[in-house]
Amino acid sequence: LPQLISQPSEYGRNVDEVDEYADVDWENIGFGVVPTDYMYVMKCSKNENFERGQLNPYGNIEISPAAGVLNYGQGLYEGTKAHRTEDGRLLLFRPDQNAIRMRKGAERLCMPAPSINQFVDAVKQIARANKRWTPPAGKGSLYIRPLLMGSGPILGLAPSPEYTFLIFASPVGNYFKEGIAPLKLYVEEEYDRASPGGAGGIKSITNYAPVLKAIAKAKSRGFSDVLYLDSVNKKYLEEVSSCNIFVVKGNFISTPPTAGTILSGVTRKSVIEIARDHGYQVEERAIPVDELIEADEVFCTGTAVGVAPVGSITYKNQRMEFRIGDDQSTCSRLYSTLVGIQTGIIEDKKGWIIEL
Ligand code: COI
Fold first, then answer.
1. Which of 172, 175, 342 to mutate to test the pocket of ligand 1 (most atoms within 8 A of CB)?
2. Would you say residue 106 has pLDDT above 90?
3. Any ligand 1 atom below 6 A from CB of 79
4. How far apart are CA 203 and CA 99, in angstroms?
5. pTM value?
6. ipTM of the complex, rounded to two decimals
7. Is 121 left (phi over 0), alpha (psi -120 to 50) or beta?
């Protein structure tokens, strides 16, 4: 990490001298912003390619009030994690998949995007530079948040003249306040998350503010999050605000296909592969909401959420309950394998892990 070794950090010490761990109460981390030491920044103009980025001390950024991202929502975000192994190594999980997804989203939102190599290299730099903020094994992970935004000024509705790719990181524990307790979901019928031809299939920032109201409504009624139905028929399962959904019946696992309105989760994709390796029959298909009544198990997947069991889903005042929690459940088996690979307990035979 040459930039860091030659440059003193904000705290006046070289990276070689910094403590192994930052001063964090590792037993009590949730999913919140903890300012770390460094962020990564790379800029380019419209019609150009990103070239060189750099690590800067973590802090506020300056942006034009007329920036495309502020006025017209020209922005994407990603999420990936670094885990610390028992013996202190840092492991990244499939950051190339986030790079590919960001490139797809950038194409949809008329933005230049970093190459896969640039993206992965930047993620490696940010994880190394903030290593002391990565929780000890078993206590959580370093959540890495890449952003791509139209940062240049624009008034007419058109692509921004300048773009910023930025990555920051924060140590995190469980996403939901429920911890590892099963989620209580509620089928949202008033608000839609996405519609065909829209941006639901990419990680556009514009997919997230509009669901806040549905989440707030659900939380005020004691639910963890909201399950959306397709906006055309109001019949088929789509996804949860923060994660994808899977339904288990015997040896069959089903999840909605990502045909433009559903986010193509990296955890979703990985869990499908792990489940097939375990001998499950996995289908990507339209799942009518009425089918939930017959499900043995339901679980959610996402980078932030991990693999989380769903204890109940309420639809039209009917509460459906599912098997949860025991070590032999499908959800537990898939969770253990995924986390095992991510944390280096299970050998990675798939080329998913990048060790730093
Ligand atoms: C993630 O799982 O990384 C996400 O981006 C979801 C977000 C709502 C935290």
1. 175
2. yes
3. yes
4. 11
5. 0.93
6. 0.98
7. alpha
